[in-house]
Design goal:
With 228 residues, this protein is α/β, with parallel strands linked by helices. The protein contains 9 helices and 10 strands. Helix 6 links the parallel strand 6 and strand 7.
Length: 228
């Protein structure tokens, strides 16, 4: 009998933000796949989850590891996939493995929970009925500009993940393309120094502290808002 792959959401910051089902699943599986075994151990130790086999699963070894994991699943092993924080596959590794599971008729079970994307949207004060998630933008400026320009007239909110060393540069680029729209920034969500800033882009830009992990939400196009 083939094993199952469980895609398990874990806390995005506060270790208490985890479901009972996630803890039960991590306790019961044979193997846990994780981006960083050191970070995974912090979570597992916090919930007294002991003696688990951990396998690293990150962008650099994703293709090779996925094939190994398929064989383990075919041998009857139940395996959990976790990311460093939040829901796996959302701007994190895992797609190749889940695709291979589907192609091999292996069950993939979601264990839902925290997501930086959804958490930020829920408190943003911007439209949530329709939104576009761009994840992390390309590293090269010209590619970022092209990516952003494609969605200038999108009729909904736009969500972007931004790393600490790019925040100022990307906010300047967004202003050039989108203008002084309403935006929302969530910084270090659920952590000790979490911060939430809402307002026009230029005002928000002045308040940004250049530390932490950011989720940026851009309000929908003014032109789309004027349609009847």
């Amino acid at each position: 009998m083939m094993g199952k792959l469980f895609v398990v959401a874990t806390p995005i910051g506060n270790l208490k933000d985890i479901t009972i089902r996630a803890i039960e699943t991590l306790n019961n599986v044979d193997i846990i796949l994780c981006e960083d075994t050191r970070r995974a151990k912090i979570l597992l130790n916090y919930y007294n989850i002991k003696n688990k086999k951990l396998l690293s699963y990150f962008e650099g070894n994703e293709e090779k590891r996925s094939k190994e994991v398929i064989n383990l699943l075919k041998d009857g092993k139940n395996i959990a996939l976790i990311s460093d924080a939040g829901t796996p596959l959302i701007s994190d590794p895992g797609y190749k493995l889940v695709k291979l599971c589907r192609e091999n008729n292996i069950d993939v079970i979601p264990i839902p929970g925290p997501s930086a994307l959804i958490s930020a949207l829920s408190v943003s004060g911007l439209e949530t009925d329709k939104f576009l998630f761009l994840g992390f933008l390309p590293k090269k400026k010209n590619k970022r500009i092209k990516e952003l320009e494609k969605y200038n007239n999108f009729e909904g909110s736009i969500v972007i993940y931004i790393s600490v060393h790019k925040i100022e540069e990307i906010l300047n680029e967004i202003y050039e393309i989108f203008g002084n729209r309403k935006v929302f920034i969530a910084r270090e969500m659920t952590k000790t120094f979490e911060e939430y800033i809402y307002g026009n882009l230029l005002d928000v830009k002045e308040k940004i502290k250049k530390k932490g992990e950011f989720v940026l939400i851009i309000s929908k196009s003014v032109h789309s808002a004027l349609k009847f």
